[in-house]
Specification:
Blueprint lengths: L2 H6 L1 H4 L5 H9 L2 E5 L5 H11 L3 E5 L24 H12 L4 E5 L5 H7 L5 E4 L4 H14 L3 E7 L2 E7 L9 H4 L11 H4 L3 H20 L8 E6 L4 E6 L16
Parallel strand pairs: 1-2, 1-4, 2-3, 4-5
Antiparallel strand pairs: 5-6, 6-7, 7-8
Helix pairs in contact: 4-5, 4-10
Protein backbone atom coordinates (compact mmCIF):
# COMPACT_ATOMS: atom_id res chain seq x y z
CA UNK A 1 0.00 0.00 0.00
CA UNK A 2 1.14 3.52 -0.73
CA UNK A 3 0.92 6.45 1.69
CA UNK A 4 -2.44 7.63 0.37
CA UNK A 5 -3.93 4.16 0.86
CA UNK A 6 -2.49 3.87 4.37
CA UNK A 7 -4.25 7.14 5.22
CA UNK A 8 -7.52 6.37 3.39
CA UNK A 9 -7.93 2.95 5.02
CA UNK A 10 -6.39 3.87 8.39
CA UNK A 11 -9.60 3.19 10.33
CA UNK A 12 -9.66 -0.35 8.95
CA UNK A 13 -5.96 -0.82 9.60
CA UNK A 14 -6.48 0.19 13.25
CA UNK A 15 -8.77 -2.79 13.73
CA UNK A 16 -6.74 -5.68 15.17
CA UNK A 17 -8.90 -8.23 13.36
CA UNK A 18 -8.34 -6.55 10.00
CA UNK A 19 -5.07 -4.62 9.98
CA UNK A 20 -2.80 -4.12 6.99
CA UNK A 21 -3.03 -7.73 5.82
CA UNK A 22 -6.82 -7.72 5.84
CA UNK A 23 -6.91 -4.44 3.95
CA UNK A 24 -4.48 -5.82 1.38
CA UNK A 25 -6.82 -8.77 0.86
CA UNK A 26 -9.65 -6.30 0.17
CA UNK A 27 -7.51 -4.36 -2.29
CA UNK A 28 -6.73 -7.60 -4.14
CA UNK A 29 -10.34 -8.83 -4.14
CA UNK A 30 -13.04 -8.89 -6.82
CA UNK A 31 -16.72 -8.58 -5.90
CA UNK A 32 -19.60 -9.26 -8.29
CA UNK A 33 -22.78 -7.32 -7.47
CA UNK A 34 -26.03 -8.36 -9.14
CA UNK A 35 -28.40 -5.41 -9.06
CA UNK A 36 -27.64 -1.71 -8.59
CA UNK A 37 -30.94 -0.62 -7.06
CA UNK A 38 -32.10 -0.39 -3.45
CA UNK A 39 -29.82 -3.09 -2.06
CA UNK A 40 -27.09 -2.73 -4.66
CA UNK A 41 -26.64 0.97 -3.92
CA UNK A 42 -25.33 0.65 -0.33
CA UNK A 43 -23.53 -2.57 -1.25
CA UNK A 44 -21.64 -0.91 -4.09
CA UNK A 45 -20.82 2.23 -2.13
CA UNK A 46 -19.55 0.41 0.96
CA UNK A 47 -17.49 -2.07 -1.05
CA UNK A 48 -15.98 0.85 -2.92
CA UNK A 49 -15.25 2.98 0.13
CA UNK A 50 -13.76 -0.05 1.91
CA UNK A 51 -11.26 -0.52 -0.93
CA UNK A 52 -12.38 -3.70 -2.67
CA UNK A 53 -10.02 -3.55 -5.62
CA UNK A 54 -12.39 -4.67 -8.38
CA UNK A 55 -16.17 -4.43 -8.45
CA UNK A 56 -18.40 -5.65 -11.28
CA UNK A 57 -21.95 -4.23 -11.29
CA UNK A 58 -24.68 -5.93 -13.33
CA UNK A 59 -28.09 -4.33 -13.86
CA UNK A 60 -30.20 -3.98 -17.00
CA UNK A 61 -32.44 -1.18 -15.67
CA UNK A 62 -32.24 2.62 -15.86
CA UNK A 63 -32.65 5.19 -13.11
CA UNK A 64 -36.25 6.30 -12.57
CA UNK A 65 -37.54 9.17 -10.45
CA UNK A 66 -39.32 6.70 -8.15
CA UNK A 67 -35.95 5.03 -7.38
CA UNK A 68 -34.51 8.13 -5.71
CA UNK A 69 -36.57 7.61 -2.53
CA UNK A 70 -34.22 4.78 -1.52
CA UNK A 71 -31.53 4.00 -4.15
CA UNK A 72 -28.77 6.19 -2.74
CA UNK A 73 -26.17 5.53 -5.45
CA UNK A 74 -28.26 7.57 -7.94
CA UNK A 75 -29.33 11.21 -8.20
CA UNK A 76 -31.74 13.41 -10.13
CA UNK A 77 -29.26 14.24 -12.87
CA UNK A 78 -28.95 10.54 -13.76
CA UNK A 79 -32.62 9.76 -14.34
CA UNK A 80 -32.79 7.73 -17.56
CA UNK A 81 -29.18 6.56 -17.30
CA UNK A 82 -28.21 2.90 -16.71
CA UNK A 83 -28.18 2.08 -13.00
CA UNK A 84 -24.93 0.15 -13.21
CA UNK A 85 -23.15 3.12 -14.78
CA UNK A 86 -24.70 5.56 -12.29
CA UNK A 87 -23.49 3.43 -9.39
CA UNK A 88 -20.05 3.22 -10.98
CA UNK A 89 -19.83 7.02 -11.12
CA UNK A 90 -20.85 7.27 -7.46
CA UNK A 91 -18.15 4.81 -6.38
CA UNK A 92 -15.49 6.55 -8.44
CA UNK A 93 -16.44 9.94 -7.00
CA UNK A 94 -15.56 8.59 -3.54
CA UNK A 95 -12.70 6.23 -4.38
CA UNK A 96 -11.22 6.56 -7.87
CA UNK A 97 -8.67 3.80 -7.19
CA UNK A 98 -11.33 1.08 -7.37
CA UNK A 99 -11.71 -0.60 -10.75
CA UNK A 100 -15.44 -0.69 -11.46
CA UNK A 101 -16.99 -2.48 -14.45
CA UNK A 102 -20.62 -1.55 -15.15
CA UNK A 103 -22.67 -3.93 -17.29
CA UNK A 104 -26.14 -2.96 -18.47
CA UNK A 105 -27.22 -6.56 -18.96
CA UNK A 106 -29.65 -9.08 -17.55
CA UNK A 107 -27.93 -11.53 -15.22
CA UNK A 108 -28.82 -14.64 -17.19
CA UNK A 109 -27.15 -18.05 -16.94
CA UNK A 110 -24.63 -17.40 -19.72
CA UNK A 111 -23.44 -14.09 -18.26
CA UNK A 112 -23.25 -15.51 -14.74
CA UNK A 113 -21.29 -18.53 -15.96
CA UNK A 114 -18.73 -16.08 -17.33
CA UNK A 115 -18.59 -13.63 -14.41
CA UNK A 116 -18.98 -15.75 -11.27
CA UNK A 117 -15.70 -17.73 -11.66
CA UNK A 118 -13.81 -14.42 -11.85
CA UNK A 119 -15.19 -13.15 -8.53
CA UNK A 120 -14.14 -13.85 -4.95
CA UNK A 121 -17.63 -13.12 -3.61
CA UNK A 122 -21.04 -12.62 -5.21
CA UNK A 123 -23.71 -10.33 -3.78
CA UNK A 124 -27.29 -10.90 -4.92
CA UNK A 125 -29.12 -7.58 -4.77
CA UNK A 126 -31.70 -8.53 -7.39
CA UNK A 127 -35.44 -8.18 -7.04
CA UNK A 128 -36.85 -11.36 -8.55
CA UNK A 129 -36.90 -15.08 -7.79
CA UNK A 130 -35.64 -16.33 -11.15
CA UNK A 131 -32.49 -14.20 -11.00
CA UNK A 132 -31.81 -15.32 -7.42
CA UNK A 133 -32.04 -18.94 -8.53
CA UNK A 134 -29.72 -18.35 -11.50
CA UNK A 135 -27.17 -16.58 -9.30
CA UNK A 136 -27.32 -19.40 -6.76
CA UNK A 137 -26.80 -22.08 -9.41
CA UNK A 138 -23.73 -20.30 -10.76
CA UNK A 139 -22.28 -19.83 -7.25
CA UNK A 140 -22.78 -23.50 -6.40
CA UNK A 141 -21.26 -24.63 -9.71
CA UNK A 142 -18.19 -22.39 -9.35
CA UNK A 143 -17.92 -22.69 -5.55
CA UNK A 144 -18.24 -19.00 -4.76
CA UNK A 145 -19.80 -17.60 -1.57
CA UNK A 146 -23.14 -15.87 -2.14
CA UNK A 147 -24.35 -13.00 0.07
CA UNK A 148 -28.09 -12.76 -0.49
CA UNK A 149 -30.44 -10.00 0.65
CA UNK A 150 -34.09 -9.12 0.07
CA UNK A 151 -36.31 -6.26 1.16
CA UNK A 152 -39.90 -5.24 0.47
CA UNK A 153 -42.43 -3.29 2.49
CA UNK A 154 -41.05 -3.25 6.04
CA UNK A 155 -39.57 -6.77 5.86
CA UNK A 156 -36.00 -7.73 5.08
CA UNK A 157 -33.88 -10.86 5.12
CA UNK A 158 -30.22 -11.71 4.84
CA UNK A 159 -28.03 -14.82 4.63
CA UNK A 160 -24.79 -16.19 3.23
CA UNK A 161 -24.98 -19.33 1.08
CA UNK A 162 -21.57 -20.97 0.93
CA UNK A 163 -21.50 -24.66 0.07
CA UNK A 164 -17.76 -24.74 0.74
CA UNK A 165 -18.74 -24.74 4.42
CA UNK A 166 -19.61 -28.15 5.87
CA UNK A 167 -23.39 -28.64 6.11
CA UNK A 168 -24.16 -25.11 4.86
CA UNK A 169 -27.12 -24.99 2.45
CA UNK A 170 -27.43 -23.21 -0.86
CA UNK A 171 -30.26 -20.78 -1.62
CA UNK A 172 -32.29 -23.50 -3.36
CA UNK A 173 -32.17 -25.71 -0.25
CA UNK A 174 -34.25 -23.05 1.51
CA UNK A 175 -36.18 -21.66 -1.45
CA UNK A 176 -36.51 -24.50 -3.99
CA UNK A 177 -36.62 -23.44 -7.62
CA UNK A 178 -39.72 -25.54 -8.23
CA UNK A 179 -41.66 -23.86 -5.41
CA UNK A 180 -44.59 -21.64 -6.30
CA UNK A 181 -43.54 -18.12 -5.43
CA UNK A 182 -45.70 -15.03 -5.55
CA UNK A 183 -43.44 -12.29 -6.84
CA UNK A 184 -43.71 -9.17 -4.68
CA UNK A 185 -41.94 -6.02 -5.78
CA UNK A 186 -41.53 -2.47 -4.66
CA UNK A 187 -43.65 -1.11 -7.51
CA UNK A 188 -46.78 -2.80 -6.13
CA UNK A 189 -46.00 -3.16 -2.41
CA UNK A 190 -43.75 -0.20 -1.69
CA UNK A 191 -40.64 -0.29 0.45
CA UNK A 192 -39.56 1.60 3.57
CA UNK A 193 -36.58 3.64 2.36
CA UNK A 194 -34.06 2.87 5.15
CA UNK A 195 -34.82 -0.87 5.00
CA UNK A 196 -32.78 -1.40 1.84
CA UNK A 197 -29.96 0.58 3.44
CA UNK A 198 -29.98 -1.67 6.51
CA UNK A 199 -30.02 -4.93 4.57
CA UNK A 200 -27.62 -3.72 1.88
CA UNK A 201 -25.13 -2.47 4.47
CA UNK A 202 -25.23 -5.85 6.19
CA UNK A 203 -24.64 -7.58 2.86
CA UNK A 204 -21.58 -5.39 2.35
CA UNK A 205 -20.37 -6.23 5.87
CA UNK A 206 -20.70 -9.98 5.26
CA UNK A 207 -18.87 -9.69 1.94
CA UNK A 208 -16.03 -7.66 3.45
CA UNK A 209 -15.65 -10.20 6.26
CA UNK A 210 -15.43 -13.02 3.73
CA UNK A 211 -12.91 -11.19 1.59
CA UNK A 212 -10.72 -10.07 4.49
CA UNK A 213 -10.94 -13.42 6.29
CA UNK A 214 -12.26 -12.01 9.56
CA UNK A 215 -15.13 -12.96 11.83
CA UNK A 216 -17.72 -15.66 11.18
CA UNK A 217 -19.99 -15.60 8.15
CA UNK A 218 -23.75 -16.04 8.29
CA UNK A 219 -23.60 -19.33 6.38
CA UNK A 220 -26.29 -21.59 7.82
CA UNK A 221 -28.29 -18.73 9.33
CA UNK A 222 -31.12 -16.60 7.97
CA UNK A 223 -31.82 -13.29 9.64
CA UNK A 224 -35.16 -11.56 9.14
CA UNK A 225 -35.99 -7.97 10.06
CA UNK A 226 -39.40 -6.54 10.86
CA UNK A 227 -38.65 -2.83 10.56
CA UNK A 228 -42.07 -1.86 11.97
CA UNK A 229 -40.86 -2.91 15.41
CA UNK A 230 -37.14 -3.02 14.43
CA UNK A 231 -36.99 -6.63 15.61
CA UNK A 232 -34.72 -9.36 14.25
CA UNK A 233 -35.48 -13.06 14.11
CA UNK A 234 -32.95 -15.75 13.21
CA UNK A 235 -33.46 -19.23 11.79
CA UNK A 236 -30.82 -21.95 11.61
CA UNK A 237 -30.66 -23.39 8.10
CA UNK A 238 -29.86 -26.92 7.00
CA UNK A 239 -28.97 -28.48 3.69
CA UNK A 240 -31.65 -30.35 1.79
CA UNK A 241 -30.15 -33.83 1.22
CA UNK A 242 -31.54 -34.15 -2.29
CA UNK A 243 -31.32 -30.48 -3.32
CA UNK A 244 -31.60 -30.26 -7.10
CA UNK A 245 -28.89 -27.59 -7.23
CA UNK A 246 -26.16 -28.35 -4.70
CA UNK A 247 -26.41 -32.09 -3.90
CA UNK A 248 -24.30 -33.12 -6.89
CA UNK A 249 -21.56 -30.58 -6.12
CA UNK A 250 -21.02 -31.06 -2.39
CA UNK A 251 -17.85 -33.11 -2.54
CA UNK A 252 -16.55 -31.74 -5.82
Amino acid sequence: MNDDQLLRYSRHILLDELGIEGQRRLLDAHALVIGAGGLGSPVALYLGTAGVGRITLVDDDVVDLTNLQRQIAHNLSRVGQPKAESARLSIQAINPDVQVTALQQRADAALLDSLVPQADVVLDCSDNFSTRQAVNRACVLHRRPLVSGAAVGFDGQLSVYDTRVADAPCYACIFPAEATVEEINCATMGVFAPLVGIIGSMQAAEALKLLAGVGTSMAGRLQMLDARAMEWAQIKLQRTPDCAVCAAHRDA
